[in-house]
Write a structure and sequence with these properties.
single chain, 376 residues, alpha/beta, 2 domains, eight-stranded mixed sheet, 11 helices
Length: 376
């Protein structure tokens, strides 16, 4: 297929499939289409199943409600408040750092990854997730302005409840409860909003997030195969419910991928193409400086460099474990993905030119990388 026909073919299929919630039959059908496409390109493909939650909501409800109760019982049962707040705080830290513990209790569903490769020793690994998110009032374009602030608010609320529950054991003052109360109420508000998400909000069509990344990954696979570049492409499932596809890749293929550049393509269909120099939710992870430097040397004026500190991406678990990874993402005027987790994330709202630029970006980087190696 030509670049135009393959990209357009994937975009047409995105319209046919529509929303693809994590670990759903729609996600599976789209992944099977991806595998069929990679087979037609002449790649060796593998289907890798794994257990995953269908949503991240239930795990965070456990954390938020647990911390909220710790604040509310503080005056009457200070020991329970102190112990439970510290336990839930630690669990929250691990969840936000892509080392899930609570979420594993909700792995009732089956998702999968599609792996395509033309070599057992890849020169580069392409990564893109296939599933789409459920919309939420917290992602309404009128309200979503800075997800980093939202993350910090509930982290601060969690720290505050734990921070007052411990001294309350030794200094039983009513003041501690009144300090904890607004933070507990805020966590209850988050829990209510996410319950509303599960019972009343529809899934996003997922054209930009992340049909755009899959389309570009497939087009790059076609070109890499034609050029004889050793590579892997992994299209993951259950990214939106907690990066479970990426975690499965690490568990199964981690030793083979150590030191290999892993390029994650996410939300690249509209906005300014950006290389994320930092990622993370609680702990912030730096993209490898040498990898970032390679992209900075490219003569591409459309490429920007900035941190992406919204939710995690499929590159975040790799960065958290020391792998060589980075995310290419397109950001709008607010520094956020365009039509992010909203019903307007449709194929009609993609910018075809952005997809072609993303292909050009990765090809230019590969050419620069190979040229540098040849000179050495």
């Amino acid at each position: 297929m030509s670049q135009e026909s393959l990209l357009d073919h994937v975009l047409t299929k995105l319209q046919d499939f529509g929303p693809r919630p994590s670990a759903s039959h729609r996600e599976r059908e789209f992944l099977l289409f991806v595998r069929e496409t990679l087979n037609r390109l002449g790649l060796q493909t593998e289907w890798e199943s794994f257990q995953a939650p269908a949503t991240y909501t239930w795990a965070y409800l456990v954390l938020w409600l647990g911390l909220a109760q710790a604040g509310l019982v503080l005056p009457r049962i200070p020991l329970l408040s102190a112990i439970s707040s510290l336990v839930f705080l630690v669990l929250e830290y691990f969840e936000l750092s892509t080392f899930p513990l609570v979420s594993r209790l909700f792995c009732f569903h089956t998702s999968g990854n599609v792996l395509g490769k033309n070599s057992e020793d890849p020169e580069v690994v392409l990564l893109a997730h296939a599933d789409s998110a459920t919309t939420s009032i917290f992602f309404h374009p009128r309200f979503v302005t800075n997800p980093r602030v939202s993350l910090l608010l509930f982290i601060i609320a969690s720290l505050a409840i734990a921070g007052v529950s411990v001294p309350a054991l030794f200094f039983p003052l009513k003041l501690w409860f009144w300090i904890a109360l607004p933070f507990a109420l805020y966590l209850l508000f988050l829990a209510f909003g996410h319950l509303h998400r599960e019972v009343a909000m529809p899934p996003s069509p997922g054209a930009n997030d992340n049909g755009s990344g899959v389309a570009v990954a497939l087009e790059l696979s076609r070109i890499f195969k034609e050029q004889g570049i050793p590579f892997w492409v992994v299209v993951t499932g259950a990214e939106e419910s907690g990066n479970w596809g990426a975690l499965h890749v690490i568990a199964k293929h981690g030793p083979k991928l150590w030191g290999k550049p892993i390029m994650n393509l996410d939300n690249i269909g509209s906005g300014t193409l950006t290389l994320a120099t930092q990622e993370g939710m609680w702990k912030i992870y730096e993209a490898p400086p040498d990898l970032v430097a390679e992209f900075r040397k490219l003569p591409l004026p459309f490429l920007a460099f900035r941190p992406y500190l919204g939710l995690s991406t499929d590159a975040t678990p790799f960065l958290a474990r020391g792998f060589t990874a980075a995310t290419i993402i397109a950001l709008g005027g607010k520094g956020l993905p365009v039509n992010w987790h909203w019903h307007t994330d449709t194929v009609e709202n993609l910018e075809r030119d952005n997809l072609e630029k993303a292909v050009q970006l990765v090809l230019s980087w590969i050419a620069h990388r190979r040229g540098s190696s040849a000179e050495c």
